[in-house]
Specification:
Blueprint (H helix, E strand, L loop, with lengths): L17 E3 L4 E3 L6 E3 L3 E8 L6 E6 L8 E2 L2 E3 L6 H13 L3 E16 L2 E14 L12 E7 L4 H6 L5 H11 L2
Parallel strand pairs: 4-9
Antiparallel strand pairs: 1-2, 2-3, 4-7, 5-6, 5-10, 8-9
Length: 175
């Protein structure tokens, strides 16, 4: 995959557009167009049930369609990471979460339609009310599963969509 190369300047149409900083910046010497592809913030939420299993979603769309992910997604403008975690859980699995606590963060690479997005994935733990029912958004989630992730061996077997989630699960079990 190429590093986010433009063939033409999106502003003036020049073929002289330059891709710089490993695909994180574009500059056109003809019109002065100057654009940065900065790191995006994203969240993931580790939700445990009473058996100690973790809630995973099977992704219904690309990237990584069919792989498992923690509930989460990109932060919206003017939203805190905690607000994003609450909103994403509500949108994707219909759950109201509470007792949100920071767990860790890891860099991630998110490839969508041949564009490479670098993200900072911020992970939280959260609780749901006893008896809460999952109502998944089928445009985002094809199914949900509760999986035990208490050992390195169990984590290695989970077909995770993103490496940052694997690192988070491993961090969670560190003693």
């Amino acid at each position: 995959m190429k590093d986010n190369v433009f063939n033409f300047c999106p502003d003036c149409g020049s073929k002289n557009i330059q891709t710089l900083l490993n695909g994180r910046k574009w500059f056109c010497p003809d019109c002065g167009f100057d654009l940065y592809n900065n790191v995006a913030s994203a969240v993931g939420v580790v939700i445990e049930n009473s058996k100690g299993e973790i809630l995973f979603e099977k992704r219904a769309k690309n990237p990584r369609k069919g792989f498992l992910a923690l509930p989460g997604g990109f932060c919206e403008p003017d939203e805190t990471a905690e607000q994003s975690a609450v909103r994403e859980c509500r949108e994707e699995v219909g759950l109201e979460v509470c007792d949100i606590k920071f767990l860790c963060s890891f860099p991630n690479t998110y490839v969508y339609r041949d564009i490479i997005y670098k993200t900072c994935d911020i992970f939280f733990t959260a609780k749901i009310k006893e008896g809460a029912q999952i109502k998944m958004d089928e445009s985002e989630v094809s199914e949900y599963v509760w999986v035990s992730a208490d050992t390195m061996e169990e984590i290695e077997k989970i077909p995770l969509a993103f490496d940052s989630a694997k690192k988070t699960l491993l961090k969670r079990i560190e003693k």
